Amino acid sequence: MEPTGQIIVALDFDDRRAADELVDLLGEECRSYKVGLELLTASGPGLIRDLVAEGKDVFLDLKLFEIPNSVAGAVRAAGSLGVSMVTVHSMGGPGIMAAAVAAARPFPRLRVLALTVVTSMTTSDLADIGVTGLTSTEDQVLRLARLAEAAGCHGVVASPQEAGPLRAVLGAGALIVTPGVALPGETPGEHIRSGTPHGAVAGGASHVVVGRSVTRAADPAAAFRLVRADLER
Ligand code: C5P
Fold first, then answer.
1. How many domains does the chain fold into?
2. Which pLDDT value is given to residue 193?
3. Which of 166, 205, 160 has the alpha carbon at shortest distance from 1?
4. Whose Cα sits closest to atom 7 in ligand 1?
5. H or E segment at 49?
6. Residue 190: predicted pLDDT
7. How much is the CA Rg of the chain, to the nearest whole Å?
8. pLDDT tens per residue, range 6-33
9. Residue 148's domain is classified under what CATH number?
10. Mutation pick for ligand 1 pocket among 118, 191, 196 (CB with most ligand atoms within 8 Å)
11. How far is the C-alpha of 173 from the C-alpha of 183, rounded, in Å?
12. Range of 32's domain?
């Protein structure tokens, strides 16, 4: 895939106007956006319909963790909006992942991604919720990725550090979407930044999600081009 198609910009805003301004600034150069719970709740689905109508790919990051019937309903609603990717928590088990995949079937563009272990969690956090006996969070990420694959999910969301092991387990066709990237030399925000865009893709990621490195930059279009240049290295 060529680099521009691998970059998903996270529209983490609390109002539609700010999101629209950024989309205008990035123009034709950016083709994919992630809409999360903050913007969806603040602005409603109209923004998503409009992005799709403009020809943008939308990753609707719903992080679903519900009973299978409700997960299926939310995935159908996402499919009706025309989004390209939707997320379900793999920790919710094979039942909800399979329900999400079945609900996505009538929407040929829609890909179901399973969240593995959110990047802020450590082995100690996993032990707190009863997931014990792990030598690393990667063990759990790979276990969940295998479950996701068996349930028919089209890919996973994981940190750049896990992209390589995941690619080895899931094979060439799977989507591996990695948030938590920063440009080389960039001062990390409050997140533990786990890789550059180049590092993530070289490791096996199919897509990178970039948020504040672009959205909070003084010149977002220039920052987007830096991300693309990093991928082209
Ligand atoms: O940190 P940044 O602003 O680039 O985050 C963009 C998106 O990536 C956020 O919407 C967040 O959900 C996700 N993220 C993540 N793990 C991180 C950092 C960000 O899942 N360590």
1. 1
2. 41
3. 205
4. 211
5. helix 46-53
6. 46
7. 17
8. 999 999 999 999 999 999 999 999 999 9
9. 3.20.20.70
10. 191
11. 27
12. 3-232
